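Section 3.1: Structural characterization of target chains.
Under the original work plan, the team committed to producing a structural model for every single-chain target entering the pipeline before any wet-lab resources were allocated. The record below documents one such target. The sequence was received from the expression subgroup and is listed exactly as submitted; it comprises 427 residues.
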Amino acid sequence: MTTITRQPTPTPAPAASTTTDPLQLIDVDHVQFYVGNAKQAAFFYAHCFGFQIEQVGDLTTGFRECSHYLLTQGNIRFILSSGLSPTHSSNMEVAMYGDGVKDIAFTVFDAEKAWERAVKNGAESAYDPKVYRDEHGTVTMAGIRTFGRVVHTFVSRTGAYELTKVKQGGLFMPRFRKVEGGPACPPTAPAAGCAPQAGPGSSILAINEQNRKNPCGLKYVDHLVGNVEMGKMNYWVKFYEDVLEFKMFKHFDDKDIATDFSALMSKVMASGNNLIKIPINEPAPGKRKSQVQEYLDWHANTPGVQHLALRTDDELHSIAALRARGVDFLTLPDAYYDKVWDRVNGTLQSHGKPEVKEDHKRIHDLGILVDADDEGYLLQLFTKPLQDRPTLFFEIICRRGSQSFGKGNFKALFEALELEQARRGNL
């Protein structure tokens, strides 16, 4: 998290020894967003997507340049960050690009060694290793630059800040505090946070309680998609192969992802253990602008994260819950469902896989896309852009064996996207 490295004042990272592969990625530690107003954005993601507003690091805890809100749901951790001065890097990027993803951070065994290996492999450093410590433990972070504005931070944790403890509700890192109902905790407060009481945090407690009672069921970051300029996809494919030692998982060309008007190409990169998947998209020539080119046009012609795919174990429940909360999704024509079942169930039967078990009418009513391959099937649906600029959006995905990305849905999806582009005047 590049903004967090500014506060508190760090000390050099201690040496650590391990026989583990330095670039073995354990988990998506967190995804950091740069936003114009972190407190307001936290309420948006809590209300619309069911995230818990768990912790905050701000002026009351000793952060003087940037405020940070930790949002959680399942094993998803978002950090929403806003600069507190006009010249802070987050405010400058928000002015350029709007709200969006800045950092995809990976938990590793030793952040310094991972950073050293990546730099040796050819990465440009975003910032040197730093350690943040208090009496409860340490968090070590070091970052490298990837496509456009995006950073990958390596994170290693000890003591009370180990990832398993963070998942159980422990503090994210020093100078974060748990969100409670009372006045803000001072920086010297115990790691457990302040005792709840009526106060300025009551509205956050109320929405957190509402979300606990009415969960949306989002569990993991399944994958994240990067949009790059035309002709640069292979450059970034090689970057992930050389620097992070990823391998190519899937490849889609403009014959796979095309309509009568637009096309794009995509290569899916995966970590050695297939835990982290990053499809990289570039526009392809077409009669009109592709969704990737529209993204670049409204993102200061700078590559970045186009969407995050969030995994659920129950697509129907999650989509119904999100629709009830007011989330806007892409709309598919009814004609899509005239052919989908023959296509999907035919594929499953040909590979000896069980047919789609979810209620077909409910899938239609909720507007969910379905696809199948030799391993099983998946259900997916895409939101409209999450802010006024047509850039970042979410995908909600449920996998029933399939590890692909919905190739059979590409044409229908892109036609739906083109309708939205036309409404925005961007075709």
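The first strand starts at residue 11 and ends at 12.
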